[in-house]
Amino acid sequence: MSEGQSGSSSASNLPSASIIDTEMPSVSTSSETPSPSTSTEAPATATSSEAPSATTSSPGQIPANFTSNSVPSTSNSSTTKSPDKLEKEKKIDPMKLKILCIHGHKQNGAKFRAKLGAFRKIVDKYAYLTYITAPHAVADTTGGGDQDPRTWWYNTEDNSYSGKCLGGPAYGFEETLQTIKTGMDNLGPFDGLLGFSQGACLVGLLAAMQQKRLLPYRFRFVIIISGYLSGSLVHRGFYEHNIITIPSLHVYGETDSTIPKEMSECLASKFNDPVTFEHPNGHYVPVSGAVKAIYEDFLADMYQQRLIYRQEVERTAE
């Protein structure tokens, strides 16, 4: 994973929309209780360097640039699977958590999903995961990165990015905020956000902005993996005089040279009573060993809180 590597791209050629990939049914499962909506399976996520043009849809519907693999395809499915199996596949748990997953620099939503295969199995009991792709393209100068590498913003004058850069700009950040809002409008609300590396930095920023009531949507918890404080000058005000009160889980590597653990610990210190876990390795999403129980315990707590909240809402409505 190439968070610390920089890439270049012409700002004038930025794509106008993002790609969002989801394995979540179209029925809302957040702590809010909007009416369910249904949709057939959308086309596969695009992988070209140009993102698809913006689509329009009413909140709760899945536009063409969203995909779902939790609801079976309607094409020829009845000829290949028994009715009992189809009914089982269509069944969803409306109480499951909904989590928006935000990839790192030089990744994209589809690749991030592929790299989270083992993580998905761990959290499947508690959550549906949705994957969103950053709006800005970057050049892979190493030749070994992901296809269609993306970034959430640039923090240098030459439109590159480094997590260790201090005092730079945040070119493209407004487009990123709009991308996240589009995801929230079309598939949200979400109970939580999960981010890795630059995506974890973005999750920390969004949590800080929510604490200051600067966002038009809300979420209830965050999972931050290899996260850090943004060094961009325009972001500093979000962290000032601000203790973030929502539940948070912070996972980082002892030997991470891309985002040293001290950077992750500094971000964790901005949260009230954060749950932290330090694994012995480097810059990736760990899924084996003791961290598995950490993920499960944290999400079990968030799941239980959601059940309690729903029960309180139902009692109030009686």
Description:
The protein is an alpha/beta fold and 318 residues long. The chain has a domain at 96-317: 3-Layer(aba) Sandwich (Rossmann fold), CATH 3.40.50.1820. The chain has helices at 77-80, 83-90, 109-115, 117-123, 173-187, 198-211, 236-239, 261-268, 290-317; strands at residues 20-22, 66-68, 97-102, 127-132, 136-137, 150-151, 192-196, 221-225, 248-253, 275-279. Strand 9 (248-253), helix 8 and strand 10 form a beta-alpha-beta unit.
Distance between the termini: 51 Å
Q: What is the CATH third-level topology name of the domain at 96-317? A: Rossmann fold
Mean pLDDT: 77
The CATH homologous superfamily of the domain at 96-317 corresponds to Alpha/Beta hydrolase fold, catalytic domain
Provide the descriptors you would attach to this structure in a database record.
30% helix; Rossmann fold; 14% strand; eight-stranded mixed β-sheet; 318 residues; alpha/beta
In short:
InterPro entries: AB_hydrolase_fold (IPR029058), FSH-like_dom (IPR005645), LovG (IPR050593). The chain is α/β, with parallel strands linked by helices and 318 residues long. It contains 9 helices and 10 strands.
Note the topology.
Blueprint: E1 20-22, E2 66-68, H1 77-80, H2 83-90, E3 97-102, H3 109-115, H4 117-123, E4 127-132, E5 136-137, E6 150-151, H5 173-187, E7 192-196, H6 198-211, E8 221-225, H7 236-239, E9 248-253, H8 261-268, E10 275-279, H9 290-317
Parallel strand pairs: 1-2, 3-4, 3-7, 7-8, 8-9, 9-10
Antiparallel strand pairs: 1-4, 5-6
